[in-house]
Amino acid sequence: MKTTWVATRNARQIKTGYILLIAMLLLDFSCSKNNDLELIEEENAMMSKSANTSPNTVLAWNQVMEDLYTFSLNGPGTPPPSASYTWALVHLAMHDALNGIVPRYETYAGVPRDKDANPDAAVSQAAYDVLMAINQLPFAPAYLPQNFQSINALLAETLDGIPDGEAKNKGIALGHAVAEAIMAKRAGDTPNLAPGVPNQPAEGTQPGEYRYLPYPLAPNGMGYALANFHKLKPFFMVTNDMFRSEPPYETSSPEYAADLNETKDFGALNSQVRSADQTELGVFWAENSSRGWNVVARIVRDSYNEKSQNAWKTARYLALVHSAIADSYISIFESKMYHYFWRPITAIQLADNDGNDATTADPSWVPLLNTPPLGEYPSAHAISGSVAGQVIIRFFDDRDNYELNLDSGYMPGVIRSFSSVSDAVRENSLSRIYIGYHFRLAVDVGEALGKELGDYVYENALKEK
Question: Which residue windows are coiled coil (predicted)?
């Protein structure tokens, strides 16, 4: 009997154990299922928030930047490479702020997530804080126009339009954190941002080597502007020399002579062959690339499918365009410093000493516009326009045909029209010949490099999660 009782007891214990185990598994499955449902519901809510969030605040800050960097031809301004640096940081901050709420795309500088933060508050505070941080740089006026009324007004207007409460407070806090993270990531930039004379390269002496230029905006002499800009940490390139160009033509070559004579004829202040339209397009495109190509980016976005571009997509799009422009300047300045090629004003005035019988010196030759004091080859303006155009084309399904009616701060009231982004890119490049800044090879190479860099940035930066 005892044996039977023990066996029965053991059987009951085993049965009870099985029942408890099954109950625990069912409970665990139920909890797991509930947790999964909660996560799915949370994710759906977050995706719905990102899909339905208006891009108006992102676009408002973008428009403030466009207005702030619209300069007249003979008025004060900021150097185009310096402008691109500020534009990139502001737009990356807006992108990161949104993706700190709903992580749809990779961020530039990681920050803690806060799904309950108000997107408009986060975007505005992040953009504003980055601009104020740039204003603390030793060379602030070269990077940010000292006119803060519109910036202050937009921040106040945006925050005043958001109901007080936890979401607004969290959005402001997230914006602060994003800006701090962005600037921390760029903390090593300061030694390389100086626009003036630190660490000037030696003036060249041989045919083709860069010579210091007379420059009205630097009456005491600048030598070489932004001489360390090429050392900046890239935004998305792997290395600064990743897209270094092949060398320019030898000054003794027939190709060089053909390029020099073209710029000598068409780029002179008192050219006898440049048409009125070529003069217009030369000056029209001379403004900073960040402002000029932002106009194109906005038109294309609105023309493609405005309703499909929520805040997240719009912020990523503009961050890619402006980060690519900034990287293009870093890249091309590296090539300029590496090749250290002389400008047309030097080459034409010293043509009797270039070892080429097909060129003739004109010691009095001057270009249509004053040439910036930095190396000629390749063209920074060509690469910055081309990289922007390529990102714009790639972002919207490789579509190129758009009706573009563009304006320019350098020629108020003048509109130039194009049927494609590529046509605008090409005219932007050629404009540098007509103002006497560049030889044709420099603009052709710059434009080609811009397409390569644009593809790289589009395919590798801020990718969808």
Answer: none
